Amino acid sequence: MHIIDRRLNPRGKSLENRQRFLRRAKDAVQQAVRRSLQNRNIRDVLDGGEVTLPIDGMAEPSFHRGEGGLHDQVLPGNRAFVEGDIIPRPPGRGGGRPKEAGEGDGEDGFRFVLTREEFLAVFLDDLELPDFAKRRLSETEEMNPIRAGFSVSGSPSNIAIARTTRLAMMRRIALRRPKPAEIEALQREIEECDSEEKRLLLEAELKSLTDKMRRIPYVDPVDVRYRRFENEPKPVVKAVMFCLMDVSGSMSEHMKDLAKRFYLLLYLFLSQRYEKVEIVFIRHTEKAEEVDEETFFYGQTTGGTLVSSALAAMRGIIAERFDPTEWNIYAAQASDGDNSYRDESATGHLLQHEILPLCQYFAYIEVGEEESDSSMSSSPLWSLYESIRSELLPLAMRKVCRKNEIFPVFHELFQKRQAKATP
Amino acid sequence: MTKVARQKERLLFDGADWDFATLQRIHDACEEIALGELGLDVYPNQIEVITAEQMLDAYSSTGMPLFYRHWSFGKHFAHHEAFYRRGMRDLAYEIVINSSPCISYLMEENTATMQTLVIAHAAFGHNHFFKNNYLFKLWTDAEGILDYLDFAKGYITRCEERYGEVAVERTLDAAHALMSHGVHRYAGKTKVDLRQEEKRQQERRVHEEQVFNDLWRTVPTGPKRNATDIDIEKRRAALGLPQDNILYFLEKSAPRLRPWQREILRIVRHVAQYFHPQRQTKVMNEGTATYVHYKIMERLHERGQLSDGHYFEFLKSHTNVVFQPAYDDRRFSGFNPYALGFAMMRDIERIVTNPTNEDRDWFPDIAGKGDAMEVLRGIWADYRDESFISQFLSPRLIRQWRLFQLHDDPEIDEGILVSAIHDERGYKYVRRQLAREYDIGWTDPGIDIVDVDLAGDRRLLLQHRAPNDWFLEEHEAKLVLQHLADLWGYDVLLQEVDDAGGVVKEHVAHPRHALYSDRSVA
C-alpha cells in the first residue's frame, strides 16, 4: 500500500478549465455582473463574489426522455394505500408521475463565484479614459531594449553567430586561405609523384600553403560580432484624475452614498486599468482640502458650500505638481448642485477659463434624492455648467438619483469611444 | 501493565487526529480483516490525501486524477464549488478510482474514524467489487486506464496546438452530447486493452502514411455503377447497421471527419465505455462497499482496535449514509443506493444464515447455506443492479421498506393507480418494476442508426424506439441532433417510433460546415 500526500500539489488544477468556461460564458457573465452590482454594497465589489448565470448557451445537451407517457414507479414508505387505490394527480400538472424533489431539469440558473480579478476584468472590460492625448517620453523609468544592429564588443551570450561566420568566410575568401581540400589534394599528389624534382617543388608549395593556412585563422577575433541593443525610453502616459466631492450639509446621506459609489467605481477602474494614474481626492464644503482615499470615502465632515474652493484647490495642485504639458488631466465632480449664490460667477470663471482648458475630460455628476426624477428641475450648478458647456469644451454632465443608475452612468461616461469624446 | 493500558495499546488510534503512520496502521488492520476474514480479493491500494479544493477538482473531472481539458469541467467545478461554499452540500468523504493500483482519495478534514471508514469502504469494498464484478472485468481495463487518460490528455492538447482550440472544443462538445450513446452494450470478442490504444493510434497513422500513394487518385476508375446495383441490405451490413453506438459509427463511417476528430470521438467513447459498468451497478457497488465497511468496522470494534466512542462516531455517519426517507418525506429524492444496497446485502446475509420458511420458498438456492460471505462474493461477481434486484429483493425487505408501485396512465383521468403494494400479490410486481428502474437498457432512450442514403444525399437515418409514449425531450434532442449532423457532415433525420412501429415524430438537422475549420487538410 502506498500513501501519497497530494495536498502539496500545485493548486488550481481546474484553472484552465475554468478559464475556458469563462471565455465561453463571457456575455452571460458580463450581464450578470452588471445586474449583481445594483443590489450589493459597493465595497463588496472589491472582493469579487457570486453572480448568477443563466445556464443556457453553456448547455450540455443529451438525448433523454421528456415528460408524458405511461409510467410505473416503485416508492418506499407506503402508509395507507392498498392495491387499486387511485391517487389524484398533484395539481398544476397535466399528467405524468409525481415529481420528486431534485428530479427536475429546471436548472434555470446557477451561482458562480468569480475571483476578484475575474470580476473586475469583466466589470471594467469596455471602459477607458477618453482622449489620452499627451504621451510623453519619460525621463528615466521605463526602458525598452531594442535591437540596434551589431557591435564588435559585447557579452558572449549576445554573439551573433550568423553574422560572425559570414564575416569570417568573407575574410577567408578575400585572403585566399587555402581550403583543406586543396592541401589534401596536394598531399596526394606528392605521394603519387615519382619525379624527385617535381616532388620538392610540390612540397615547397605545400609548406607555403600550410603556413598560409596557419597565418590566416578560420575565425579571427576581428570577425566576431555581437548583437547590439539600445535602451529606448518607453513612452509613458501620465495621467491624473481629480475627484472633487461636495460633502456639505445639503448633501443627504443618500446623495453622499451615491457620490461615494461613483468614486469607488472610478477608483476601482483607474487602479485596475492604469498603472500610472495618479488620483487626487479633494472634498469641499465652504473650503476645500486634499485628503487621502480613506478620509475621502469614509470621513465625516459637513458645512456650507463653495464649489469654487474645490476648483481653486484643483488649480493650485495642478500648478504645483502636474504640468499640463506633460500630464493628461481628468476630473470628476460630484455634487447635489447647490452652490452659494455669490460663488456662482467665481465658479463659472474658474471652470471655463482655468480648469477646462487644462483638462482632457471633466465629468460632472449631479446626485439627487431617491424619490426625485433624473430630469429634475435644474439646480444652480447644473444651469451654470449647462451655460458653459459647448462643443469645444470637454465637459460631460449626468444626473443620478438611484443606486442602480450609477453603473450605467459611469459606463456611459467612460466607455470606449471611436472618435473624440463628444460630451 | 493495567488492563486499561493494555486496552489502550490495542487501539489503532485515539482521538480525531491522524498521521500517515496511523493511516498505515488502519489500512493494515482493515486488510487483515478484509482478506483474512471476509475473503476479499483486491487490487493493490494507493491512498492519496487531498484537500477540499482538490476534491472539487476531482468531482468536476468525473473523479479521474487526470483528464483532458474542456470548458464543461470548469462549469461543473464552478457549480460544485458554489454549492459547497454556501454550505448547501457536503463533499463526499472519498472518491475511489477503478484502476490498478486502486486509488482512493481521502479528504484531509476527515477524522481518524472517518478515515478508517473510508479506507474500509473504498480501498476494500469498492476495490473488491471493481476487481471481481463481471461487468468491470468485461468492460474496463483497470491496469490501463491511467495511462490511457494520460495519452488522451496529451493527444487532445496536441490537437489543440495543431488545429486550434475552437475546432477541438467543438468536436468535444459534439462528442460529449452523444456520449450516452457511445457505448457498446453487448460484449465484443476481445477484451479491452487500453494500454494498447496509444500504440494502435500510432500504428494506424503510420500505416496510413505508408500506404498513401497519390498515384491512386489518378488511376481511372471503371464506369460508374448504377446506384440501384447496391443492395440496401448489403449496404447496411457493410456499415454494420443497425448500430446503437453512435460515436462508434461516426468514428468509423462519418465521411467528412478528419483523422484527429475520429481519434477524439474514440477517446470520448472509451471514457464513456469505462464508466458504463458503474452506471449499471450503483446499488450493488455501494451496497458492497457499505456492507464491507460495516463488517470491517464491526470487527475492529470487537477486536478492541476501535474504542467505543469512535465506534459510535462511525455508527452515526453510517446511519446517515444508509438513511432512506419515505416517498412523502421532504428529503425524499428517489432510492438511496447505499441504503437499498446495504439493506439487501444484510438481508441476504440473514437468508443465508437464518432463513424463514418464506425465504426457503423464495430463495431455495441460498437459504440456509451458512457461509454468508461466500454467497455474497458470488453475487458481487455475477450480477448487476437489475438482475441483482430481480433475483434477491426478498418479500421481507419489501414489507420492511413498505414498497408500493404506482401506475400512471395519462388515459386514466381520475389519477394515479396504486397497482401493487407489499403483499402476497404484489411482491413479484414490485420487484420486477424496481429491477426495471435499474436497467439502463430500459431507462435510457434506445436510439439506433438504421440507414444511410449513400447513393443519394447521404442522409443519416436514426430511430428512437419510444415504448409507452416516452418521447425525447425535444429541445435538447434538437441540440444533440445538431451536433450529430455537424459530425456526420450531411443531414440527419431522427424518427420516433411507437410500440406499433409507426413513425410518430420526426426531427431533422442540417450540418453547419463552417464550424469545423478546414485547416487540417494539410
Structural write-up:
The complex is a heterodimer of chains A (423) and B (522). By secondary structure, chain A is an alpha/beta fold. Chain A folds into 3 domains: 17-56 and 110-123, no CATH class; 148-229; 235-414, Rossmann fold (3-Layer(aba) Sandwich). Chain A has 13 helices and 15 strands. Chain A has helices at 15-24, 26-38, 42-45, 116-123, 161-174, 180-192, 196-215, 253-273, 293-298, 307-321, 344-355, 380-388, 403-414, and strands at residues 2-5, 49-54, 71-75, 86-87, 109-114, 135-137, 143-151, 226-233, 235-237, 239-246, 277-284, 288-291, 328-335, 361-367, 395-400. In chain A, helix 10 (307-321) runs parallel beside helix 11. Chain B contains 23 helices and 9 strands. In chain B, helix 2 (20-37) crosses helix 5 (112-132) and helix 7 (145-163) runs antiparallel to helix 13 (259-280). Chain B is globular, with a radius of gyration of 27 Å. Strand 3 of chain A pairs antiparallel with strand 4 of chain B.
Instruction: Kindly report the greatest chain-chain contact and the residue count on each side.
Output: A-B, 66 and 103 residues
* Largest sheet: number of strands, sense, barrel closure of chain A: 6 strands, mixed
Tell me, what is the CATH class of the largest domain in chain A?
Answer: Alpha Beta
Provide the structure class of chain B: alpha/beta
- Mean of pLDDT of chain B: 85
The number of helical segments of chain B is 23
Binned strand content of chain A: 15-25%
Number of separate domains of chain A: 3
Order of helices and strands of chain A: EHHHEEEEHEEHHHEEEHEEHHEHEHEH
Strand line-up across the major sheet of chain A: 12-11-10-13-14-15
Write a short abstract of this structure.
Chain A is of the alpha/beta class. Helix content of chain A is 37%, strand content 21%.
What are the salient characteristics of this protein?
heterodimer, A: 423 residues, alpha/beta, Rossmann fold, 3 domains, six-stranded mixed beta sheet, two-stranded antiparallel sheet, 13 helices, flat, disordered C terminus, B: 522 residues, Trna Endonuclease, Chain: A, domain 1, four-stranded mixed beta sheet, three-stranded mixed beta sheet, 9 strands, 54% helix
